[in-house]
What does this fold into?
Amino acid sequence: MARRELSASKLVKYLFVAILGCAIGFAVLIAAGVLWVRSLKGGPAKPRPTMVMARNDFPPPFEVPRTFKKNAILGDVLERAAPGDDIFIDLVIPKIEITVEGAEWSKLKRSPREYVLATITEGEKKYTNVAFRLKGGPGSYRDVGDMPSFTVNFDKFAEGQTFHGLKKIHLNSSVQDRSLMEEKISRELFNAAGVPTPRAGNAQVTFNDRLLGVYVLVEGINKQFLKRHYKDPDGNVYDGKSGNEVDQNMRTNSGDDRKDKSGLRALAIAAKEPDLTLRRAALEDTLDVDRFLSYMAMEMILWHWDGYTMHRNNFRLFHDRPNDRMVFFPQGMDQMLNGDSTGRSVIPQQAGGLVARSVLEVPEFRQRYRERVAQIATNVFRADAIASRIYEVSTAVRGALAEVDERAASSHGAMADSLRRRVRARAAYLERFISPPKPITFNEQGLAALSTWRPQTDLGQPTFSQERDAEGKTLLRIATKEFCTASYRTVVRLDPGSYQFEARIKTKGVVFKEIDEKAGAGLRISRFRKGQRHAGDNDWMPTTFEFEVTPEKPEVELVCELRANAGEIFFDLASLKLKKL
It folds into this structure.
């Protein structure tokens, strides 16, 4: 076969294509190198989305409270304007871009908890020489390549520089609270109860061109904060971290005379005084007892299990020098009313903190504590007011999330509704704490009728109704066409012992997923999460649920529940009884 010769023009064309291919390959290599360098500068690079106006077209997190009022928790107790009110009250969510470069970046990677110089940009405004470092405890600390939390001091290296009027802030990634609200709501409640507490809001954070998302912004405990509450802001502030106690050598965060720990030592001596009469006098001389009672009450109401009262963690101590008394400030409130805490006692069974334990051992203080819980439950922990604020905050947070994470924004309403329901459940417990239900009365056969029930929706849109059948019997009905968790509930106070909850039930078309261990239709108690697995169509049949009551938890919430994807359940009201075993 004859060989074909290439013409000069074709040779030039092939040569041009080869050179073009090499150029493209070289450009790809250069781009990959740039991305690799950026990945060393604050973690993997992520494309920054085009910033748009905050979206508010999501469905509301729950029905607007009938008594809705803006800033409902603190609206009646604010006395004057303060720096950062636009963030903390009006719910402005600033967009913060943080840049740490060169030698400062190397220093930050080497010693992340030591201040370095950073530049912060918010819109057209630029802040230079900003003191910046990483922060976080054992459960929340993340390194620079992850989603770290930050301490930012605008005034430390640039005197007089402020951010929305604030000299020092913390930016928390809130890894333990994806709703981004629990810290804020808790802090507002502490302030409403008269406990000086740094306020919280939110911010959208970008770190070295890497969009981290929506954070929780908290004001720092510095002289600016202390001046709002005390005439002398120069007393020592002590750092209460995990396991720290007043009789230990606590680290001094700030103060004019850091070596003078006389106030701390005096409080430790008072707390250890064995004679209760002498202890009472000593504590009144060294501790702001009135505020400490409110501090303990709010920690227990919110079930701040990782705070000072229960766990000797997440607190600060301030020496109020003119009065020569120590004051506790709460910290780290990102796990509010979690788990089954809504029914937990507000009376500490065994306080973890030395001062909390010492105060509650004094009979007069213990009585005052019970009275303080009732006062705060009535005047501060108002479910409708808190629901209004949750609604308001959730709307703002979802608008900010929509710019960075559509999925997180769409699911935020469910988180807000969950928080609202936990608040309502806690408020119901507090009402029973103030006016305890009378112990239930059993007849000679050991039976007690249960006639007072309230409906409760946890998930979905179920239908509740009270009906009469052909025989004239009163029936409680729950029905759903989509997934729901719904129930009728009542709370009873019982003596320690064994009991049986019993009823006659009927089901129609009850369907649920087998993998959902909590699903089903039937009876249970609130602390027992697994439901009875009645499914399909069942004519009237008896069902029972046995449980134990301990001296520590005399109140039991009885639950007639439907947790299913579809179906109906009927409870014969006259058959709903308790039996003493």
About this structure: Residues 1-6, 34-56 have pLDDT under 50 and may be disordered.
